[in-house]
Design a protein that fits this description.
- The chain is an alpha+beta fold.
- The chain is about 30% helix and about 30% strand.
- The C terminus is likely disordered.
Length: about 210
């Protein structure tokens, strides 16, 4: 049985250049997701949510493998929002809301998902209320690869928000999205690789403006 890897198959989504933003058209993709809020370094719910995602994702992998489909479990991802976007640049983490998620194979049935959740619940107990399988539609995005500590992302995001997006005529079209290609438990902070992605849309010209 052949095992496929999303990161190798969909290189444009996982291998942007370091040091500059490029555009990418992201297709609708399925994920297992859990919502929460607060500082990811201190909020117990964040760690619990990540544990649930991995437990369900690996259980789902083995459910699908029994049906003849095998794949490498993709990396952890997260969507980040805040009432004030500058809180990301300033790293005011207590203000952040997040959706942690792991991509799944296409065509997962409700029965397969239920079997995976039931298996994870035997280890972890009560199922998070927000745990779900959902299609994420982002479309046009700007993304780059950040190499370094998570807290060093501030200047990169400031450049994206305050300079690059205005210069290109783009507005925000969805939450800030990160893909964690490195395991922070095994990788020095200076060598962490993180895809930084921002869904965007062209700003419509002001119909009342005159040239």
């Amino acid at each position: 049985m052949d095992k496929f890897d999303f990161k190798k198959r969909d290189r444009a989504l996982y291998q942007p250049p370091v040091g500059r933003f490029v555009t990418v058209d992201v297709p609708p993709l399925p994920y297992v997701m859990v919502d929460g809020h607060g500082d990811p370094n201190t909020a117990p719910a964040y760690l619990q949510s990540v544990q649930w995602l991995y437990a369900v994702s690996y259980a789902l992998k083995f459910v699908l493998k029994a049906g003849g489909q095998d794949y490498v479990v993709p990396p952890l991802e997260a969507l980040w929002t805040a009432e004030d976007p500058s809180s990301f640049v300033a790293r005011r983490k207590d203000e952040w809301r997040w959706t942690v998620m792991i991509r799944t194979s296409d065509g997962v049935s409700p029965e397969q998902l239920e079997a995976a959740i039931a298996k994870a619940a035997k280890k972890l107990g009560d199922v998070p209320a927000s745990l779900r399988h959902e299609i994420l539609e982002e479309g046009l995005c700007l993304q780059t690869l950040h190499v370094g500590a998570y807290d060093d992302e501030g200047p990169i995001l400031a450049h994206l928000h305050d300079e690059l997006m205005p210069s290109l005529g783009y507005a925000f079209a969805g939450p800030h999205h990160e893909i964690y290609l490195s395991d922070p438990r095994r990788t020095d902070a200076a060598r962490l690789k993180t895809v930084l992605r921002q869904p965007v849309l062209p700003i419509e010209p002001d119909e009342d403006s005159h040239t």
